[in-house]
Amino acid sequence: MMFKAFLIKYGEIGLKGKNRYLFEDALMRQIRFALNGTGEFEVSKEQGRIFVDFTSDYDYDEVLERLGRVFGIVAICPVVHCDDNRWENLTKVVGDYMDAVYPDKAFTFKVESRRADKNYPKKSMEISADMGEYLLDRFPQAKVDVHNPQILLNIEIRQKTYIYSLSIPGPGGMPVGTNGKAMLLLSGGIDSPVAGYMIAKRGVRIDATYFHAPPYTSERAKEKVIDLAKIVARYAGPIKLNIVNFTDIQMAIYEKCPHDELTIIMRRYMMKIAEYIAKKDGCLGLVTGESIGQVASQTMQSLAATNAVCTMPVYRPVIGFDKNDIVEVSQKIGAFETSILPYEDCCTIFVAKHPVTKPNIRAIERSEFHLADVIDELVETAITTREVLICE
Amino acid sequence: MEIYLDNAATTRAYESVCQIMVKTMRQDYGNPSALHMKGVEAEHYVKNARQYIARTLKIGEKELIFTSGGTESNNMAIIGGAMANCRAGKHLITTGIEHASVYNPMMYLESQGYEVTYLPVDSTGTVRLDALEKAIREDTILVSVMCVNNEIGTIQPLDKIGRLIKEKNPKTLFHVDAIQGFGKMRLWPSKLGIDLLSASGHKLHGPKGVGFLYIKDRVKVHPLILGGGQQKDMRSGTENVPGIAGFGQAVEEVFENLEEKLDQLYSLRDYFIQRVCELDGVVINGFTHRQEGFFGPAPHIVSVSFADIRAEVLLHALEEKKIYVSSGSACSSNHPAISGTLKAIGVEKKYLDATLRFSFSFDTTQKDIDDCIDALKSIVPVLRRFTPGGRR
């Protein structure tokens, strides 16, 4: 194994003033979580950078893939160690490194050096110049370009020497856990996992609620939602998934309310239940995958009607996205194939032929009045009988 | 206690089947092609299984090829049969109610320049012999008709079909997909004029992943899987010894006192039909009562349509009570496409999506059926209140 360590570069969190250590610690924690099971490693921070040092064998591609899912990372630089710092040996190791990493030797390069170990016999400027000379000798086709090099070769002398030149872009965003927690309303569709991903990218930890309506929705539909939560959890960290049995509420609405208002009323109760669990579990907001005008229940009027039951802020990260844009993100995060499996969710079972698209809140509230004598008990039962799973 | 009434999809393997399979993996695990003792021991299992099966069919042991299951057997019979006999003609005949593993190879052959005639069936799902008589031509190389329909359980008049084919064109091959029929009746290919016959292990308490194709002596079929030349070059690949041994064991057990067991199974089926008709708005598809010879219903399948009920919802409601059945045909249940057989026998449109298949095994008891009927009686009226269209 050539690369023994990774240098992690992070952007935005570098700006956070006195809170910076909180963000760095969160990032280190997320990195440890993401790499769990890949081998023996240590994560350390120094001078605004994070290092991951492997002390055992590991799978390079897998580690890169996992680091690529940690929000807050801007770039990942695979690092080669050189234990023996004597100049003769160092030049050989650096030369071999360049030889192995760049098969085409007609490159332009620049050497940048740092010397944390001030006892090292060469100063950093000398290291750069001498190493440049050595490389020009060894690879006659290569040229130095100090302004716009194709390869920026970094040499850092500490107890060991770190050599790196590759930089693989990370996902950006902020480390999960630095911006509180939110409750995601997770259906089996394409939009809600994307919404969860996008909120998590801003550093928010995710809980989720799924509404299950057996026998109208199948065990497979539930499995699918658990799978989707696991996919989002690859980015967002472990997700606490609340599975709420919604059948009795749905039946009551079906029996007592006008059918064209069914979906809206149903969604209002879903929001209420999700908000209740969210508050209880310390979430600071709700997250949905709604996008304006996508379906009857997502017109401006319908969104207002569902929003009206909540006191918590409701975040809708894909609100201005077209379906194609959402699908693109869904494919990128690997959720799409699962999202399109054909199992019905509880929103699609009892849809009226012509649902209201411009609901009037007063009218909806009047309809809900018919539920008055049963609904509180049904909601309470739904909440207390919910099933809780940790998806990771 | 769970009640498993989906035995046409798959069955529970017999204890003795599991035991012999474990033995072939832990003790006698050799490769049957190996020259040493270990190989010879393993080969014994294959030989024994071949013997049992050949005996039940009254065929020669050399006329049997083990495959990976029913689908491969059907593919091999149809595609391999067409390829080997294409000089005699390029016309094939099948029915409109075949399983996808017959239907799709036929479609494939059509894309390769063959011509396929699809025969109509009557309202019981029995193939129309007059149509078959008209369809057989000078260049007809193969007729493929299933023994028992997997969705409604109708037995095809194989004796009459075989006779008709040989009268009209003695060179035409007769293939029977007996995946649902094998082990549910006495099938003697030589008496019925059958040249090719497919069966599968897991439909009669054997393991999944194993099946056979009977190929009558001197009938030409091209192998589809090429390699090390096992099974006389007809089906390369190391023999699936555990699967074949398990299959053989299952066949031996199933065929013991078969007539007696079949009588019991038919009375159980009669009992189920009598009880299920106690419900309102119920239609039995295909035959209700046992008939003589190759005609009437198979002993293990009943297809029932429930007016104003969505089959999938009823299926899941039964599932909550640990009663497992299938909607339409299990093989097509994952696709929203509506059953081909039900359409072909002219089931009314409103019943197409309202049909469940109950399928029994020799282990099904009268109590299982009573419990199932009790469950239906409690669920069906409730679902009718809520299923869209069911409400006044």
UniProtKB/TrEMBL annotation, chain A:
Listed pathway(s): Cofactor biosynthesis; thiamine diphosphate biosynthesis
InterPro entries according to UniProt: Rossmann-like_a/b/a_fold, ThiI_AANH, ThiI_fer, ThiI_N, THUMP_dom, THUMP_ThiI, tRNA_STrfase, tRNA_sulfurtransferase_ThiI
Gene Ontology annotations of biological process type: thiamine biosynthetic process; thiamine diphosphate biosynthetic process; thiazole biosynthetic process; tRNA 4-thiouridine biosynthesis
Protein's cellular compartments: Cytoplasm
Reactions it catalyzes: [ThiS sulfur-carrier protein]-C-terminal Gly-Gly-AMP + S-sulfanyl-L-cysteinyl-[cysteine desulfurase] + AH2 = [ThiS sulfur-carrier protein]-C-terminal-Gly-aminoethanethioate + L-cysteinyl-[cysteine desulfurase] + A + AMP + 2 H(+); [ThiI sulfur-carrier protein]-S-sulfanyl-L-cysteine + a uridine in tRNA + 2 reduced [2Fe-2S]-[ferredoxin] + ATP + H(+) = [ThiI sulfur-carrier protein]-L-cysteine + a 4-thiouridine in tRNA + 2 oxidized [2Fe-2S]-[ferredoxin] + AMP + diphosphate
Domain of life: Bacteria
Lyase keyword on record: no
Family label: Belongs to the ThiI family.
Protein name per the record: Probable tRNA sulfurtransferase
Source organism per UniProt: Catenibacillus scindens
UniProtKB/TrEMBL annotation, chain B:
Keyword Cytoplasm attached: no
Domain of life according to the entry: Bacteria
EC number: 2.8.1.7
InterPro entries: Aminotrans_V_dom, Aminotrans_V_PyrdxlP_BS, Cysteine_dSase, PyrdxlP-dep_Trfase, PyrdxlP-dep_Trfase_major, PyrdxlP-dep_Trfase_small
GO MF entry, a single one: iron-sulfur cluster binding
Cited NCBIfam families: PRK02948.1
Family: Belongs to the class-V pyridoxal-phosphate-dependent aminotransferase family. NifS/IscS subfamily.
Name recorded for this polypeptide: Cysteine desulfurase
